[in-house]
Here is the input.
Amino acid sequence: MRAFEAGWGGVVTKTIGLHPVTNVAGPKTKFLRSTLDGQLSMQKKPDTALHSSWNWELISDKPLDWWIPKIAGIKKAYPDRMLIASIMAGSGSDKELAAWQTLAKACQEQGADAFELNLSCPHMDRKDMGSNIGKDQEQVSIVTEVVKEVATVPVWAKLTPSTTDIVEEADAAFRGGADAIVSSNTFPSLPLIDPETLDFEMNVDGLVSSGGLGGPAILPQSLAKMSQLTTAFADKEFSGIGGISTFAHALNYMLLGCGTVQVCTAAMLDRAIGPTVVKNLISGMHEFMEKRGYTSIEEFRGLRRGNVVVHSKIRRPEGKEYHGGHEAEGYAS
Ligand SMILES: Cc1cc2nc3c(=O)[nH]c(=O)nc-3n(C[C@H](O)[C@H](O)[C@H](O)COP(=O)(O)O)c2cc1C
Here is the structure.
Protein backbone atom coordinates (compact mmCIF):
# COMPACT_ATOMS: atom_id res chain seq x y z
CA MET A 1 0.00 0.00 0.00
CA ARG A 2 2.89 2.36 0.79
CA ALA A 3 4.53 1.59 -2.55
CA PHE A 4 1.26 2.35 -4.32
CA GLU A 5 0.89 5.57 -2.32
CA ALA A 6 4.38 6.52 -3.50
CA GLY A 7 3.21 6.08 -7.10
CA TRP A 8 4.37 2.57 -7.98
CA GLY A 9 2.47 0.66 -10.65
CA GLY A 10 2.62 -2.89 -9.34
CA VAL A 11 3.61 -5.04 -6.40
CA VAL A 12 4.52 -8.71 -6.11
CA THR A 13 3.61 -10.35 -2.81
CA LYS A 14 6.04 -12.35 -0.73
CA THR A 15 5.66 -15.93 -1.97
CA ILE A 16 2.56 -17.64 -0.58
CA GLY A 17 2.37 -21.41 -0.03
CA LEU A 18 0.21 -24.03 1.65
CA HIS A 19 2.88 -26.05 3.47
CA PRO A 20 4.08 -25.13 6.99
CA VAL A 21 7.00 -22.69 6.96
CA THR A 22 9.49 -22.43 9.83
CA ASN A 23 12.44 -20.08 9.37
CA VAL A 24 15.88 -20.52 10.97
CA ALA A 25 16.55 -19.29 14.51
CA GLY A 26 18.20 -15.90 14.19
CA PRO A 27 18.41 -13.26 11.46
CA LYS A 28 17.03 -14.18 8.04
CA THR A 29 18.56 -11.32 6.02
CA LYS A 30 21.67 -9.17 6.38
CA PHE A 31 23.46 -6.67 4.20
CA LEU A 32 27.09 -6.88 3.13
CA ARG A 33 28.86 -3.52 2.91
CA SER A 34 32.12 -2.45 1.32
CA THR A 35 34.61 0.17 2.54
CA LEU A 36 36.43 2.40 0.05
CA ASP A 37 39.51 0.21 0.34
CA GLY A 38 37.52 -2.92 -0.49
CA GLN A 39 36.87 -4.50 2.92
CA LEU A 40 33.63 -6.45 2.95
CA SER A 41 31.59 -7.05 6.09
CA MET A 42 28.06 -7.38 7.37
CA GLN A 43 28.97 -5.22 10.37
CA LYS A 44 27.53 -1.72 10.13
CA LYS A 45 30.40 0.79 9.74
CA PRO A 46 30.49 4.44 8.64
CA ASP A 47 31.53 5.32 5.09
CA THR A 48 30.52 2.04 3.56
CA ALA A 49 28.46 1.29 0.48
CA LEU A 50 25.99 -1.53 -0.01
CA HIS A 51 27.51 -4.51 -1.78
CA SER A 52 24.70 -7.07 -1.52
CA SER A 53 21.98 -8.63 0.57
CA TRP A 54 22.30 -12.17 1.83
CA ASN A 55 19.23 -14.10 2.94
CA TRP A 56 18.15 -17.59 3.79
CA GLU A 57 14.55 -16.67 4.44
CA LEU A 58 11.93 -19.15 3.29
CA ILE A 59 8.67 -18.11 1.63
CA SER A 60 5.96 -16.34 3.66
CA ASP A 61 5.40 -17.92 7.07
CA LYS A 62 1.86 -16.50 7.03
CA PRO A 63 -0.82 -18.95 5.84
CA LEU A 64 -3.06 -18.43 2.81
CA ASP A 65 -5.91 -17.47 5.17
CA TRP A 66 -3.83 -14.50 6.34
CA TRP A 67 -3.12 -13.40 2.77
CA ILE A 68 -6.66 -13.68 1.40
CA PRO A 69 -8.14 -10.60 3.12
CA LYS A 70 -4.90 -8.67 2.52
CA ILE A 71 -5.07 -9.23 -1.23
CA ALA A 72 -8.74 -8.25 -1.26
CA GLY A 73 -8.07 -5.16 0.86
CA ILE A 74 -5.14 -3.93 -1.25
CA LYS A 75 -7.12 -4.37 -4.48
CA LYS A 76 -10.07 -2.55 -2.97
CA ALA A 77 -7.87 0.40 -2.00
CA TYR A 78 -5.94 0.44 -5.31
CA PRO A 79 -8.10 -1.18 -7.99
CA ASP A 80 -6.08 0.36 -10.84
CA ARG A 81 -2.68 -1.04 -9.73
CA MET A 82 -1.18 -4.43 -10.49
CA LEU A 83 -1.11 -6.83 -7.55
CA ILE A 84 0.76 -9.97 -8.45
CA ALA A 85 0.52 -13.00 -6.20
CA SER A 86 3.75 -14.96 -5.91
CA ILE A 87 2.85 -18.58 -5.24
CA MET A 88 4.73 -21.80 -4.53
CA ALA A 89 3.92 -25.45 -3.95
CA GLY A 90 5.86 -28.63 -4.53
CA SER A 91 6.21 -30.99 -7.46
CA GLY A 92 6.25 -34.66 -8.20
CA SER A 93 2.80 -35.57 -6.87
CA ASP A 94 -0.81 -34.81 -7.73
CA LYS A 95 -1.29 -33.41 -4.22
CA GLU A 96 1.40 -30.77 -4.75
CA LEU A 97 0.15 -29.88 -8.24
CA ALA A 98 -3.35 -29.46 -6.79
CA ALA A 99 -1.85 -27.09 -4.18
CA TRP A 100 -0.63 -24.79 -7.01
CA GLN A 101 -4.20 -24.67 -8.31
CA THR A 102 -5.68 -24.05 -4.85
CA LEU A 103 -3.33 -21.10 -4.35
CA ALA A 104 -4.03 -19.68 -7.80
CA LYS A 105 -7.82 -19.93 -7.49
CA ALA A 106 -7.83 -18.40 -4.00
CA CYS A 107 -5.67 -15.43 -5.00
CA GLN A 108 -7.43 -14.61 -8.25
CA GLU A 109 -10.83 -14.77 -6.49
CA GLN A 110 -9.58 -11.89 -4.31
CA GLY A 111 -8.57 -9.83 -7.34
CA ALA A 112 -4.89 -10.70 -7.91
CA ASP A 113 -4.00 -9.40 -11.38
CA ALA A 114 -1.37 -12.01 -12.22
CA PHE A 115 0.67 -14.84 -10.75
CA GLU A 116 4.37 -15.14 -10.31
CA LEU A 117 5.34 -18.80 -10.00
CA ASN A 118 8.24 -19.11 -7.61
CA LEU A 119 10.37 -21.72 -9.39
CA SER A 120 13.52 -20.09 -8.16
CA CYS A 121 14.10 -19.66 -4.42
CA PRO A 122 17.57 -21.19 -3.96
CA HIS A 123 17.36 -22.16 -0.28
CA MET A 124 14.19 -24.12 0.30
CA ASP A 125 14.11 -26.68 3.13
CA ARG A 126 12.17 -29.03 0.83
CA LYS A 127 13.74 -30.64 -2.20
CA ASP A 128 10.55 -30.60 -4.26
CA MET A 129 10.29 -26.80 -4.26
CA GLY A 130 11.81 -23.54 -5.45
CA SER A 131 14.90 -23.60 -7.62
CA ASN A 132 14.85 -27.39 -7.53
CA ILE A 133 11.74 -27.20 -9.72
CA GLY A 134 13.31 -24.36 -11.71
CA LYS A 135 16.32 -26.54 -12.57
CA ASP A 136 14.11 -29.31 -13.97
CA GLN A 137 12.70 -28.34 -17.36
CA GLU A 138 9.98 -30.98 -17.29
CA GLN A 139 8.75 -29.82 -13.87
CA VAL A 140 8.86 -26.18 -15.01
CA SER A 141 6.52 -27.04 -17.92
CA ILE A 142 4.22 -29.19 -15.79
CA VAL A 143 3.79 -26.65 -12.98
CA THR A 144 3.21 -23.79 -15.43
CA GLU A 145 0.63 -25.83 -17.33
CA VAL A 146 -1.18 -26.84 -14.15
CA VAL A 147 -1.53 -23.21 -13.03
CA LYS A 148 -2.53 -22.10 -16.54
CA GLU A 149 -5.36 -24.65 -16.44
CA VAL A 150 -7.14 -22.66 -13.73
CA ALA A 151 -5.69 -19.15 -14.14
CA THR A 152 -7.91 -16.40 -15.52
CA VAL A 153 -5.04 -13.87 -15.24
CA PRO A 154 -1.50 -13.86 -16.71
CA VAL A 155 1.07 -16.29 -15.33
CA TRP A 156 4.70 -15.23 -14.96
CA ALA A 157 7.42 -17.81 -14.26
CA LYS A 158 10.25 -16.60 -12.01
CA LEU A 159 13.30 -18.66 -12.93
CA THR A 160 16.50 -19.44 -11.10
CA PRO A 161 19.74 -17.95 -12.45
CA SER A 162 21.71 -20.99 -11.26
CA THR A 163 21.42 -23.24 -14.29
CA THR A 164 23.73 -23.63 -17.28
CA ASP A 165 21.42 -22.09 -19.86
CA ILE A 166 18.37 -20.18 -18.59
CA VAL A 167 17.00 -20.09 -22.14
CA GLU A 168 16.16 -23.79 -21.82
CA GLU A 169 14.11 -23.36 -18.64
CA ALA A 170 12.38 -20.31 -20.16
CA ASP A 171 11.53 -22.38 -23.22
CA ALA A 172 10.04 -25.03 -20.91
CA ALA A 173 7.96 -22.37 -19.13
CA PHE A 174 6.69 -20.95 -22.43
CA ARG A 175 5.80 -24.47 -23.57
CA GLY A 176 3.72 -24.76 -20.39
CA GLY A 177 1.93 -21.55 -21.38
CA ALA A 178 3.78 -18.89 -19.33
CA ASP A 179 2.87 -15.34 -20.32
CA ALA A 180 6.15 -13.84 -19.11
CA ILE A 181 9.48 -14.74 -17.51
CA VAL A 182 10.95 -13.05 -14.44
CA SER A 183 14.70 -13.07 -13.76
CA SER A 184 16.62 -13.13 -11.50
CA ASN A 185 16.00 -14.59 -8.11
CA THR A 186 18.99 -14.46 -5.75
CA PHE A 187 22.24 -16.26 -6.60
CA PRO A 188 23.33 -19.19 -4.37
CA SER A 189 26.09 -17.99 -2.04
CA LEU A 190 27.60 -18.09 1.45
CA PRO A 191 28.16 -15.27 3.94
CA LEU A 192 31.85 -14.35 4.46
CA ILE A 193 33.94 -15.66 7.36
CA ASP A 194 34.94 -13.06 9.95
CA PRO A 195 38.79 -13.12 10.10
CA GLU A 196 38.74 -12.34 13.86
CA THR A 197 36.27 -14.95 15.07
CA LEU A 198 36.59 -17.39 12.14
CA ASP A 199 32.80 -17.66 12.24
CA PHE A 200 30.54 -17.09 9.27
CA GLU A 201 29.13 -13.58 9.60
CA MET A 202 25.70 -15.18 9.66
CA ASN A 203 25.26 -18.55 11.29
CA VAL A 204 23.14 -20.54 13.70
CA ASP A 205 25.24 -22.49 16.24
CA GLY A 206 28.23 -21.97 13.92
CA LEU A 207 26.46 -23.61 11.02
CA VAL A 208 25.50 -22.03 7.72
CA SER A 209 23.79 -23.21 4.58
CA SER A 210 23.71 -21.86 1.03
CA GLY A 211 21.55 -18.71 0.84
CA GLY A 212 20.74 -16.08 -1.77
CA LEU A 213 22.74 -13.04 -2.86
CA GLY A 214 20.80 -9.96 -4.01
CA GLY A 215 21.47 -6.24 -4.40
CA PRO A 216 24.13 -4.30 -6.38
CA ALA A 217 26.54 -7.27 -6.58
CA ILE A 218 24.18 -9.25 -8.80
CA LEU A 219 23.15 -6.53 -11.26
CA PRO A 220 25.70 -7.42 -13.99
CA GLN A 221 25.10 -11.17 -13.58
CA SER A 222 21.36 -10.79 -13.67
CA LEU A 223 21.60 -8.57 -16.76
CA ALA A 224 23.58 -11.31 -18.52
CA LYS A 225 20.73 -13.76 -17.82
CA MET A 226 18.15 -11.27 -19.05
CA SER A 227 20.10 -10.57 -22.21
CA GLN A 228 20.15 -14.30 -23.02
CA LEU A 229 16.39 -14.43 -22.51
CA THR A 230 15.36 -11.34 -24.45
CA THR A 231 17.67 -12.28 -27.33
CA ALA A 232 16.31 -15.82 -27.54
CA PHE A 233 12.64 -14.78 -27.27
CA ALA A 234 12.38 -11.34 -28.88
CA ASP A 235 8.57 -11.47 -29.08
CA LYS A 236 7.97 -12.49 -25.44
CA GLU A 237 7.49 -10.50 -22.21
CA PHE A 238 10.08 -10.16 -19.45
CA SER A 239 10.26 -8.63 -16.00
CA GLY A 240 13.76 -7.70 -14.82
CA ILE A 241 14.92 -7.94 -11.22
CA GLY A 242 18.31 -8.07 -9.52
CA GLY A 243 20.39 -5.19 -8.19
CA ILE A 244 18.05 -2.32 -9.06
CA SER A 245 17.98 0.72 -6.78
CA THR A 246 18.03 3.64 -9.24
CA PHE A 247 16.44 4.33 -12.61
CA ALA A 248 19.87 4.01 -14.28
CA HIS A 249 19.93 0.39 -13.07
CA ALA A 250 16.35 -0.26 -14.19
CA LEU A 251 17.11 1.29 -17.59
CA ASN A 252 19.58 -1.52 -18.31
CA TYR A 253 16.77 -4.09 -18.12
CA MET A 254 14.46 -1.94 -20.24
CA LEU A 255 17.11 -1.39 -22.92
CA LEU A 256 17.53 -5.17 -23.07
CA GLY A 257 13.78 -5.57 -23.67
CA CYS A 258 12.02 -5.81 -20.29
CA GLY A 259 8.55 -4.31 -20.02
CA THR A 260 8.61 -4.18 -16.21
CA VAL A 261 11.26 -4.12 -13.50
CA GLN A 262 11.14 -5.11 -9.84
CA VAL A 263 13.06 -4.13 -6.72
CA CYS A 264 13.65 -6.11 -3.52
CA THR A 265 16.91 -5.39 -1.61
CA ALA A 266 16.87 -1.62 -2.18
CA ALA A 267 13.27 -1.35 -1.02
CA MET A 268 14.08 -3.32 2.15
CA LEU A 269 17.06 -1.10 2.96
CA ASP A 270 15.41 2.21 2.33
CA ARG A 271 14.65 3.84 5.68
CA ALA A 272 11.00 4.43 4.76
CA ILE A 273 10.90 0.82 3.51
CA GLY A 274 10.38 1.32 -0.17
CA PRO A 275 8.70 4.62 -0.86
CA THR A 276 11.89 6.68 -1.23
CA VAL A 277 13.29 4.17 -3.68
CA VAL A 278 10.01 4.21 -5.58
CA LYS A 279 9.95 8.01 -5.73
CA ASN A 280 13.55 8.16 -7.00
CA LEU A 281 12.85 5.52 -9.64
CA ILE A 282 9.83 7.45 -10.88
CA SER A 283 11.57 10.85 -10.91
CA GLY A 284 14.64 9.28 -12.56
CA MET A 285 12.45 7.83 -15.29
CA HIS A 286 10.63 11.11 -15.90
CA GLU A 287 13.91 13.04 -16.10
CA PHE A 288 15.38 10.53 -18.53
CA MET A 289 12.33 10.51 -20.79
CA GLU A 290 11.92 14.27 -20.76
CA LYS A 291 15.59 14.85 -21.59
CA ARG A 292 15.40 12.53 -24.58
CA GLY A 293 11.90 13.43 -25.72
CA TYR A 294 10.43 9.97 -25.11
CA THR A 295 6.71 9.76 -24.38
CA SER A 296 6.51 6.00 -23.85
CA ILE A 297 8.78 3.24 -22.58
CA GLU A 298 8.09 1.43 -25.85
CA GLU A 299 10.23 4.04 -27.64
CA PHE A 300 13.40 2.79 -25.92
CA ARG A 301 12.49 -0.71 -24.77
CA GLY A 302 14.89 -3.24 -26.29
CA LEU A 303 17.10 -0.57 -27.90
CA ARG A 304 20.32 -2.36 -26.89
CA ARG A 305 19.09 -5.94 -27.13
CA GLY A 306 20.93 -6.44 -30.43
CA ASN A 307 24.22 -5.04 -29.11
CA VAL A 308 25.01 -8.17 -27.13
CA VAL A 309 26.79 -10.49 -29.59
CA VAL A 310 29.16 -13.47 -29.57
CA HIS A 311 32.76 -12.57 -28.68
CA SER A 312 34.09 -13.17 -32.20
CA LYS A 313 31.75 -10.48 -33.55
CA ILE A 314 33.55 -7.77 -31.53
CA ARG A 315 35.85 -5.68 -33.77
CA ARG A 316 39.58 -6.43 -33.59
CA PRO A 317 42.29 -3.77 -34.12
CA GLU A 318 42.25 -2.36 -37.67
CA GLY A 319 44.45 -4.02 -40.24
CA LYS A 320 44.76 -7.34 -38.42
CA GLU A 321 43.38 -10.42 -40.08
CA TYR A 322 40.95 -12.12 -37.73
CA HIS A 323 39.23 -15.46 -38.24
CA GLY A 324 37.28 -15.89 -35.05
CA GLY A 325 40.20 -17.46 -33.19
CA HIS A 326 40.85 -20.06 -35.91
CA GLU A 327 43.55 -20.44 -38.58
CA ALA A 328 42.38 -18.74 -41.76
CA GLU A 329 43.02 -21.80 -43.89
CA GLY A 330 39.96 -23.90 -44.43
CA TYR A 331 37.54 -21.19 -43.33
CA ALA A 332 35.51 -19.04 -45.70
CA SER A 333 36.56 -15.41 -45.62
C1 LIG B 1 14.88 -11.19 2.29
C2 LIG B 1 14.50 -11.64 0.92
C3 LIG B 1 13.37 -12.42 0.76
C4 LIG B 1 12.99 -12.86 -0.51
N1 LIG B 1 11.85 -13.61 -0.65
C5 LIG B 1 11.44 -13.96 -1.89
C6 LIG B 1 10.21 -14.65 -2.06
O1 LIG B 1 9.48 -14.93 -1.13
N2 LIG B 1 9.86 -14.98 -3.33
C7 LIG B 1 10.63 -14.67 -4.42
O2 LIG B 1 10.25 -15.00 -5.54
N3 LIG B 1 11.79 -14.02 -4.26
C8 LIG B 1 12.21 -13.65 -3.04
N4 LIG B 1 13.38 -12.96 -2.89
C9 LIG B 1 14.18 -12.66 -4.09
C10 LIG B 1 13.87 -11.25 -4.61
O3 LIG B 1 12.52 -11.16 -5.00
C11 LIG B 1 14.77 -10.89 -5.81
O4 LIG B 1 14.53 -11.78 -6.87
C12 LIG B 1 16.25 -10.89 -5.48
O5 LIG B 1 16.49 -10.43 -4.16
C13 LIG B 1 17.03 -10.01 -6.45
O6 LIG B 1 16.55 -8.69 -6.47
P1 LIG B 1 17.23 -7.48 -5.61
O7 LIG B 1 18.66 -7.40 -6.07
O8 LIG B 1 16.40 -6.27 -5.95
O9 LIG B 1 17.13 -7.87 -4.19
C14 LIG B 1 13.78 -12.50 -1.63
C15 LIG B 1 14.92 -11.72 -1.45
C16 LIG B 1 15.29 -11.28 -0.20
C17 LIG B 1 16.54 -10.42 -0.05
